[in-house]
Design brief:
With 62 residues, the protein is α+β, with helices and mostly antiparallel strands. The chain is 19% helix and 6% strand. The protein has a domain at 25-60. It is built from 2 helices and 2 strands, in the order ββαα. The longest helix has 8 residues, at 28-35.
């Protein structure tokens, strides 16, 4: 990695009822659990990672 490359700050956004945090590897299991109610990754209208692609899903961001 280039030490002169810009670093992206990804803050957590916290409200009264929800907290949005950048995806981390430790979120993979929860993401799969949330999508497991009907194999949403097989639907053609959604972008939901499946068990084989959840690790790459987080890499799509900055």
């Amino acid at each position: 990695m280039n030490d002169n490359a810009p670093r992206f700050i990804q803050p957590a956004l916290t409200g009264q009822t929800v907290e949005l945090r950048p995806l981390q590897q430790e979120h993979a299991r929860g993401l799969l659990d949330a999508a497991a109610d009907g194999q949403l990754w097989d639907m053609k209208l959604t972008v939901v990672p499946g068990p084989d692609t959840v690790g790459d899903y987080r890499e799509l961001g900055p």
